[in-house]
Amino acid sequence: MGKKINAIFFDFDGVIVDSLQLWEQMFDEVVKLYHLDTKCLVENDGMNFTTNEAIQLMLENQQRFTNALSAEIIEWTEKFYIDNFHQLLRLNEHVVEVLEHLKANQIQIILVSNSSKRQVKYAFEQLKLHSYFDHTISADDVSKGKPNAEPYLKALSLSEKQMEEVLVIEDSLTGINSAKVAGLNYKIYNNSAFCLHPNYIADFRELIKDI
User: Fold this and answer.
1) pLDDT digit string (tens) for 142-182?
2) Gene3D superfamilies recorded for this chain (predicted)?
3) 55 shares a domain with 11
4) Reduced DSSP (H G I as helix, E B as strand, rest coil) percent helix, strand, coil of the chain, to 5
5) Which of 88, 110, 130 is the last residue of a domain?
């Protein structure tokens, strides 16, 4: 990578926290409750949307979209997230240890997530993460979420670092593509689909070996 790493941009879901069960249950229930057709998501690679984008696409595909209905469904997902947070979500192993090491070594830390600002704020409050992060970027802070480059380019601008000084930590193809399009170096955390990739790491502590 050349230059010393002076900033790390972390994805949230799947990297900082294990939230797969929460998101899967939320998606299943909201689809049933509002009779949403998910076929359009599959056809358009459903991982490539924020929650708001996915809801809008499903409603438009069924010719049911109104601002009021979209807002109602989004509010339902936000409430589900908060109500089920402690039961279905947990910090990934060694996260706090690594964040503390990075802060002690004056590495800038920025969160870049496709989750909503409200979800990120609630999670940070509950998990006491605010003190570790210099900036947070949510789906509400950009016009286009991952896999578009905008979230990571915004983080780069906030960091005031050169591209070569930044490392992105992602776990999904959507996030990896966002980082790649932004021109940033990246590591892939704990996703067995990428276990043979040269940038794969299975243990969070591998991030601090050379920092």
Assistant:
1) 999 999 999 999 999 999 999 999 999 999 999 999 999 99
2) HAD superfamily/HAD-like (3.40.50.1000), Putative phosphatase, domain 2 (1.10.150.240)
3) no
4) 55, 15, 35
5) 88
